[in-house]
Amino acid sequence: MASSTTSPTVILIASGDLRLSANRVCWPAQQAVEEAVMAAIRGLGRDVKRGHPVDPVKGHGFIDSQKAGMEIFRQIPPDAPLVVCEAVWQYSHHVLAGLYSHRGPILTVANWSGQWPGLVGMLNLNGSLTKAGVKYSTLWSNDFTDEAFLNGLRDWLGGKPVRHDLSHVRALGDVRLPEEPAKAGRKVAAALRAEKAIMGVFDEGCMGMYNAIIPDEILHPTGVFKERLSQSALYAAMRRVSGEEAQDVRNWFDTRGVTFRTGTNEETELTDAQILSQCKMYIAAVRIAAEFGCATIGIQYQQGLKDICPASDLVEGTLNNVDRPPVKDAATGAVLFEGEALPHFNEVDECAGLDGLLTYRLWRALGYAPENTLHDIRYGEDYTLNGKTEFVWVFEISGAVPPEHLIGGWAGVTSERQPPMFFPLGGGTIKGVSKPGEVVWSRVYVEDGILNADLGLAKVVELPAEETERRWRETTPQWPIMHAVTYGVSRDQLMAKHKSNHIQVAYAPDLAGARRALAAKAAAFAELGIRVFVCGDETGV
Length: 541
Hints:
Mean pLDDT is 96; it is low at 1-5. The strands form 4 sheets. Strands 11-12-16-15-14-17 form a 6-stranded antiparallel beta barrel, surrounded by 4 helices. It has a 5-stranded parallel β-sheet with strand order 2-1-3-4-5. The chain is globular. The chain is 36% helix and 21% strand. By secondary structure, it is α/β, with parallel strands linked by helices. It contains 16 helices and 18 strands. The chain folds into 2 domains: 10-157, Rossmann fold (3-Layer(aba) Sandwich), CATH 3.40.50.10940; 174-535, 3-Layer(aba) Sandwich (L-fucose Isomerase, Chain A, domain 2).
């Protein structure tokens, strides 16, 4: 390797949130990670410096807007080795414009921690770069001193791409699918493509997630077409919902045994007024979906709505559940979507929306409970359960989790106020612990200008209450949690291959049923023209 006197200086940048409150709170953790990463680079004989200053007025050193990102990249040498270091959730579009045209090697790095979370932010950026066709390498570490990280960093500094083990990945053509479930999957997909369906999108591009937007020209061949809806229309529809209707929904939750942890301080506690506002949003969303004929919808919430009404999370998980409060048409009094969930894709992740809609219909055809949701790939650790040590993931998402997935169902739900630094007007969540069982996981994403899908099997395990509480403390204790073990896919293999911060999950009745569902889903994806990869052991281990 060339010495630091002849090799170009490595430039480090950090993409952050758009919300000042979040950037300020998360900045100390980011600083600590940056110092460790830069120490590792210097330890390998290279010079490194930040590509942008810390703002003393704002109280952080993040790139916090697309505008700022463009200004900063004008000052970065276009051929410099560039490290994007993340210890937090970040908005990929803040840096995407600069990364598009950057000619030097790019490395994305995150700390192995569930705290804010950098892993989620990095996976989103990786998925966005993959969609954009930008070449990059990626690494992660607990403390940036381990051999795996240092060896990868050494390769990258030496001009080589970082290589990860992808032996768990097989193209669908190399997998023999059992014919009966594969035929069922193709039938459902063919019906979707022929009959078509509408995806209701309440404003695209939530939180800069470029990877979550499917270009129309590659979505339409699947039979799904977007109805672009405005969040201002959703808020206007909320204002037309009566207080009595909202109270009826709240009463329904109470009769199902939901525990609302309420208080009176609007700024820090969940209040009854916040819950009733969420009930109005739920009714308004169902009515708009019915009006426009939407088979699935996604609410952006974050930007715009966060400043005028409580969070959408209670709404989202409720929509994804078959057993949910009835909503009547305002004019006719007819119950809308009676006996059905209205599949909702959190954070308007259209890749999850397409996946969720197909999964819902396919699981219905297979005779399985059709509720499905996305989660963030948040974190994970080894855990010894019943004498066997396995890597147990923390899958955790703010919204969209149906109570059907949780231990105790609706009665297992506790609704707590969203953290004020992210959600200034509060709103309740659907908090609970995912029930043990077999699941099929998947992710639809864009690569090489076409739709792709990875999928595999996992088991959800029940950890002791004290371990669950510890993991909640390490992440976000207000959110629902899933303890998952991926079959035949290690921690680092999943991180290396996955092209999103989100992962879609749906339960099967047992392992044999999960195998059947995976075969059906793989065939359904392929029928829609999606390039499919089976990850891990599709027979279970």
